[in-house]
Structure formats: C-alpha cells, structure tokens
Amino acid sequence: MELKVSDVNQWKVALSAYDSRIQSLNKPDLASLDHFYTKQLPSIIHKRNPNPYITTPELSNLMKWKLTRGKWRPRLLDFVSSIDEETVKAASEKAFKALPEVSKAVSELTVLKGVGPATASAVLAAYAPDVAPFMSDEAMVAALGNSKDYTLKQYLLFVDKLQDKAKELSAEGDVFTPSDVERALWSSAIGAKVEESSNTDTKSSKKKRKR
C-alpha cells in the first residue's frame, strides 16, 4: 500500500488487520508488549496531570516493544534501562510540553542515552498519536521510499506526510490519526511479506513434489 492510495476502505482494512499481523510474526511477548504500548501506556501518561511524563521502566518496555516489532538491538535496551528515573521524567515532561512543535519535542528526548529520533517518536506517539506517529521502517519506506535515514530532518518529513494522509482520510468521514496511518502502513507491509513467504513456500513444496 502506497501513500498515494486514497481508497479509505483499503486503509481501514489494513488498520483493522494490525492485531492479527502482530500475532502473525510469532515473536515472544510482542502481543503483550503491543497491548502495553498501544492500550495501557497512553492512559497511564495522560493520568499524570498537570505534567505528563514517562518513567524509566515504561521507557524500557517501550524500547522492548520497538525492538521486538522491528529490528532487535539489545544495546539500546541496556542504555535506556540504566537511565536515572528523574532524568527520564524531566526529559519526557519537557518533550510533551513542547508539542505540537515536533522538532523541539524530539530534541528534548534525544538527550537521553540510547534514544534517537525513532525511539523519541515512539514516546511522542504514545502521548499524542494525533500529532506524532512512530517512525517505523515499514512506514518510512512507504512514505519516503527508504528507512535508512534516522535523522530528525527525515522524521519531520515523515510527520508531514502522515499528518497530510490522516487529514485526507479523515475528510471521508472516518477519523484517522497519523499513528493510525503508520499502523495501517506497517500492517500492509507485514501482510505483503507474509503473503510473499507463503507463496514462496507453496512454490518450493510444488518443486519438491515434481522431483
């Protein structure tokens, strides 16, 4: 699914398939980590009024989710898990206050060791899914054509694309956030990989039968 596709139903189908795509990866703990990230963490953050923030254990779980749903880089998990609680709290508090200025919000979080723009985007998306989508490889490829450049500049281009697509899809009557767009793109990409793998397995088994 490319961003130029404007059929709202295709986007709704891709988004509704998100949970089953998570399950299809058969990765230990991914379903529970995803439930924590998408369902529990947002309400936990928003209950902390008047100054929302996240804690070190929450950042650690968020990193586990990010690495399990994407590429596993254990050193990043070690880095964030060892950050002082007050440091994480202060940085996230400043970042959430900076929104909707995404650039400033990301900069407030990337002072933390092991937190780059992609991890910062996951923190911001948990708090404000209507503003800042998660910078996943799959959505980056769909929106910008590549996923190699994890810079703030690239993320801001990504945010613009997904915010525009969310507005376009929402104009049809259904409410889409930039984070909904990211999940739909991720779901579509994973679905395509699963289908491709299934086709390859089918061809392989047919060849074996012919021998």
UniProtKB/TrEMBL annotation:
It comes from the Eukaryota. This is Putative DNA binding protein. It comes from Helianthus annuus (Common sunflower).
